[in-house]
Amino acid sequence: MKNILMILDSDDLAENKSLGLLFEAQKIAFMLQDCMINVLIHHNTLEPTDQKKWENLKNYGVHEVFTFDRESYHQRYEPDLLTEIAVKIARNKKPLCILLEQSSLNQEVATKISAHLDAHVFTNAKDFFYENGRFIAIRSQNNGYIFQKKVYDGTRPMVITYDKNIFSKPLLRESSSFKLMAENLGASIDPTKILVTGRSKVSLESMDLCSSRTIVAVGRGCMSRSCLDMAFKLSSLLNGTVGCTRPVVDQKIMTLDRQIGQTGEEVSPELLIACGISGANEFMMGISETRRLIAINTDEKARIFDFSDLIVVEDVNIVLPLFISQLESIRM
Questions:
Q1: pLDDT digits (tens, 9 = 90+) for 130-143
Q2: Helix, strand, or coil here: 297?
Q3: How far apart are the first and last CA of the chain?
């Protein structure tokens, strides 16, 4: 039996704000056929009215509802705790896709879940559907003037966050079977305590771009051996990885799995440092979900500066050694 997992906020569900995501789940389940819809509800307040709201989900075709309660979770948002519980359920249910409403918090959780499950992640989707044996995700770019489309073969799970502006009212379709799993799934997880069980060295070249929180991206202005070495050194100091633009791949300097952009990977790191990149549409479409963008370029009119949080008008061969030196001095 195929499965879909939705992650909903209890507070939003109480105000019917999350029901639009149910319609998207219904649509996918109908296309897949013989597909069960499961829901994980978080941020529980355990008020008497909550259980009625949860049980009401059976009227929309939901088969199982998982809930958890943790006193500390009522006071502060704990993305690592939510991630652990979602991953635990996903490994048991093996859903083809995990659906969330787009928000900065959910985007963080989506990225963490995808890293644990080795899943694809697609954020701010305008549409997501199944057709001819493939999953297709679509989102808008450049204020809606361009639409980006990605096709997935379904061999790996997908984590999708939806633009809430596209939601429709879900259809009433009572489930033939319904379970409410109101267990304390998070009881064994204490985010305030970390146990180190081992250490391993990871090659920067093998790190997944999509799950990396920090990326140093290189373009035409950083294709020399010395500049690339500095880019890898900087990413190592930042516990990140290295990506590149299409021209770098075309010159066979880096492989296709390192390419960021419309024809490469779409990334959503906390920090991206663009080295010698002008800011062509092809590249910018792949970094639209980046939280903080630092751009280094000798051209003061470089297009990428229009989208950057910090701009450095200088040769990367001068700037990167300064960055590296400062980071190394901090670590001493």
A1: 988 899 998 876 55
A2: strand
A3: 54
The CATH 3.40.50.620 portion of the chain extends over: 2-182
**Distance separating alpha carbons of residues 221 and 277, to the nearest angstrom:** 7
Q: What is the homologous superfamily of the domain 2-182 according to CATH?
A: HUPs (3.40.50.620)
Reading the block at residue 198, the tokens are 């081992």
Pinpoint the residues of the chain covered by CATH 3.40.50.1220. Answer: 204-331
Among 293, 303, 294, 69, CA closest to 181: 69
pLDDT in tens, 10-33: 766 655 666 788 888 999 999 998
Q: Which two tokens stand for residue 35?
A: 């597909």
The pTM assigned to this predicted structure is 0.57
d(CA 168, CA 24): 8
CATH topology of domain 204-331: Rossmann fold (3.40.50)
Please give the structure tokens belonging to residue 218. 């290189």
> Which residue from 33, 8, 29, 31 is spatially nearest to 19, judged by alpha carbons?
8
- Residues 242, 216 contacting (CB under 8 angstroms): yes
